[in-house]
Description:
Blueprint (H helix, E strand, L loop, with lengths): L2 E9 L3 H12 L4 E6 L4 E7 L5 E7 L21 E9 L2 H10 L8 E6 L5 E7 L13 E4 L15 E9 L2 H10 L6 E3 L4 E7 L5 E5 L1
Parallel strand pairs: 1-4, 5-8, 9-10
Antiparallel strand pairs: 1-5, 2-3, 3-4, 6-7, 7-8, 9-11, 11-12
Amino acid sequence: MHATVDHLLYGSPDLELGIAEVERLTGVRPVYGGRHPGLGTHNALLSLGAGVYLEVIAPDPSQVDVVQEPPYGIGSLAAPALRAWAVAPGDLETAVRNGRAAGIDYGNVTAHSRRTPDGDDVRWRMATLRAREDGLAVLPFLIDWGSTPHPSERAPGGVRLVQFRTFASDPIRIQGQLRAVGVELPVSAAETPGLEAVLVGPSGREVVLRS
């Protein structure tokens, strides 16, 4: 079983702030993706190449009836930052079982959707995981787009993901857990867990997004 990086979550206290920061860094402006009904968030998307994208995600002030906090500590951010990442395994249920056996606290597979500005429904299934107390997720959540076209196909292009890595105080254990869900990814030893993505925009200049 092989799993690839599907997308990176770049959280922001305000969506327009996050969009503007990504545009400033890369030279390409993410496009509005839509609202996540019931989750209290909305997003904007930027393609990072075939089958991978950056999701700028922020609290949605129009969802006044949502009682739960946005995931991955997004609701308490003071500035945009990487918060989580997703992988797309070949078999979602098998990856969830393997991940749990390796000690990853995955929840049940659940179905979700969002409505695009064009009125199309984007649907997916995913298994989230319990993040750290501050909301940062060093390990990936799992996603399956089914028959839905991948979001990278509709998002603005011109930016590439050239490197993504995680930081952990116990990198050997984290690497073992990643392998359990089919992921081979560099994990660097660090006192403070974190995420780091290196992007290259149309100008050819490298930019780094961090947690």
